[in-house]
Amino acid sequence: VQRHPVVIVGAGPIGLTTALDLARHGIPSIVLESERQVSEGSRAIVFTRRSLEILQQVGVAERVTEAGLGWRSGNSFYRNQRVFRMEAPHDPDDRFPPMTNLQQPCLEQFLVEACEANPLVQLRWGNKVEGLTQAADHATLEIDTPAGAYQLQANWVIAADGARSAIRSLMGLQLEGASYEGRFVIADIKIELDLPTERLAYFDPHWNPGNTVLMHREPGNIWRIDYQLPREETPEQALSSESLRERIN
After folding, report:
1. Number of helical (H) and strand (E) elements in the chain, helices listed first
2. Three-point CA angle 161, 57, 162, nearest 5°
3. CA–CA separation, 126 vs 141, rounded Å?
4. R_g (Cα) of the chain, nearest Å
5. Using CA atoms, how far apart are residues 111 and 98, in angstroms rounded to an integer?
6. In angstroms, rounded to a whole number, what is the distance separating the alpha carbons of residues 124 and 195?
7. Block mean pLDDT (10 aa), the chain, length 249
């Protein structure tokens, strides 16, 4: 079995950026993705200035700033009263705004196109990792594809396959840190609103009592709305058309 320098599992923003950054240093890599396309719908929607600096190193920051919406402030409301305003520092000489709003699938598409143009990066869609064994100086991956299963050996394997990482599960590794138990519905709404591009956070509003609502403007007159569900509400109830329409209105 041919052994490769680096195999990256996961073609999200982390995996794709890692592949491009390795290529900057002359290191070839293979990126495996179980899906057959970039992600869909709302995932990450805000990228910090530091993220843009990293994306600049791999050649996609300009496309992100052209497509995205820069912002630096946000308002927090308790019931119907503003209780806090956040304003991130920003100097006229700063290359990037403190935050940039852009839907994750758009960023992934820019990164995919950069990877496809780079001879040191090989993207393999529809390749799902089913097993991993480690030796002293390499790892062997068992990969399932629509065309059949195969093995891949690598000096290094990078797990960039998200919060529900198959690699971490196979290795018995757990994420450490605090978790938040609240459940939210995330909705993308196309609507023209005469509001600035800034984060809006509502705590205990009369239209979602005891819970939280977050709003962000995204490119293309899309508003991302995250609203917290009451403890007793089931996902089926929350996702009914009547419930969605009433809450979003």
Report:
1. 7, 15
2. 10
3. 15
4. 21
5. 21
6. 42
7. 93 98 98 94 91 98 97 96 96 95 97 98 98 96 97 97 90 85 91 93 94 95 94 92 92
